[in-house]
Amino acid sequence: MCCQKVRITLCAKEQVWESISVNLFKGEQYETNYLSLNPKGVVPTLVHDGKSVTESTLICEYIDSVFPNPPLVPTDPLIGSQMRTWSKMVDEGLFEGVAAISFSAMFRERMKNAPEEVRQARFRNVGDPRRCDRMESTLEYGVNSPYVLQAVYAYEKAFHLLEKSLSDGSAWIMGDNPTLADISLMPFTARLDYLGLIDVWLSERPHTNAWWNRAKKWPSYQHGLAKLITEEEIIEMKTHGPKLRTDIANLLTTLRDGSWHK
């Protein structure tokens, strides 16, 4: 999804790029040649003019600076800082959240069916202890993992703020035109949509629903995300995502009525 965010930004800037695939499930992000570009072993990495730029949020801001038209960051410093709060919310909440939900829905099935040595190799390759803990927890407990509850909360917080922000009639988060705030949220909203879970959060949020329908029709979203999802990926998400629907809805209910801490 971080790659999708960068692709949408490149499309919004009408740029042409060469895409090089890195298979995360095979651990290609930890190969020496990739680590020389991105020492953290994460995707994406942008190579521009022979130099690497890492971290998707920073890559998007870099692209906006190098290719200024159309602008995706407000020129007013205050409004620009407000825009960045959305990127920060994605990085600090939705990023881990969508990983926990996606793993529980799809990748858990792959890991459970893989030989033990493959699973252990996958854990060793993670590197980050927090990410490893999340993976082990969701592998063992699935939707009952505390990481999934945290994910449900992160999305609830984001959509609550989005509904409030759009209640003034704005088409996009920061006003009349898309910015990096909208782009940051798009892949993480799309994943819930493909998993068949989006209406668990949006059934009573008309402004957010309208924003999402608008976003899905935006050409930069279409070319940077929707048209690049394979039929195989769509089938996998639509097959496994709905299996979590009841449990996710129950978790959201426990959060909304405050019973999660009892």
- Count of discrete structural domains: 2
Low-confidence stretches: none
Radius of gyration: 18 Å
Record field, number of beta strands? 2
Classified by CATH, the class of the largest domain is Mainly Alpha
On the 0 to 100 scale, the average pLDDT is 90
Strand order in the largest sheet = 1-2
Give the topology string: H per helix, E per strand: HHEEHHHHHHHHHHH
Strand content: under 5%
Largest sheet: 2 strands, antiparallel
Give the end-to-end Cα distance, rounded to a whole number of Å. Answer: 34 Å
Number of helices: 13
Overall shape: it is globular
Structural class: mainly alpha
CATH architecture heading of the largest domain: Up-down Bundle
Which percent bin holds the helix content?
A: 55-70%
Question: Can you tell me the CATH topology of the largest domain?
Answer: Glutathione S-transferase Yfyf (Class Pi), Chain A, domain 2
